[in-house]
Amino acid sequence: MGTLVKRSWQQYLIQLQLHPLRTKAITAGVLAGISDSVAQKLSGFERLQLRRLLLKVLFGFAYGGPFGHFMHKLLDILFKGRKDRKTVAKKVLLEQLTSNPWNNMLFLIYYGLIVEGRPWLQVKNKVKKDYPSVQLTSWTFWPIVGWINHQYMPLQLRVIFHSFVACCWGIFLNLRARSLTSVKKA
């Protein structure tokens, strides 16, 4: 089993080297799908909602992976790839003030309009109501992930690391929303 995992990882790294954007997009899509599948199960869905799952995979594949790929390349160009504490802090700060709020806003809009199929006015009102708490919660967690990512991960693995953490984060947020709904019903 260990040999199979090692060989698979080596093949993955080769693909990452040969086709970085494609590999990161596919990885982000697959991890988004895993996150949504687990979240649906833990939320009590009896059957997997395939449309929702595919739309989440599409978001990870078409946006999450490519955006992360170019964002991390840009940060390394802006800060010359250095990993001293001051430079890492600047990267994390810039990421948290630009791409983090943008990603959260875009996801809430995408989820409301595309995944849930709600009209724009409902989505706009929900975003207006929920975005501040989503963003504040995000700022309590993602700067730590950003620090680890920029300090310890090589450039080619940063999107994969971020996508893996986002997979776990998505499950956590879904469970949190479920427990808040249960508390309100009680």
TrEMBL record:
It is a multi-pass membrane protein. The chain crosses the membrane at residues 53-71, 155-175. Keywords: Membrane, Transmembrane, Transmembrane helix. It is found in: Membrane. It comes from the Eukaryota. GO terms for cellular component: cytoplasm; membrane. Belongs to the peroxisomal membrane protein PXMP2/4 family. This is Peroxisomal membrane protein PMP22.
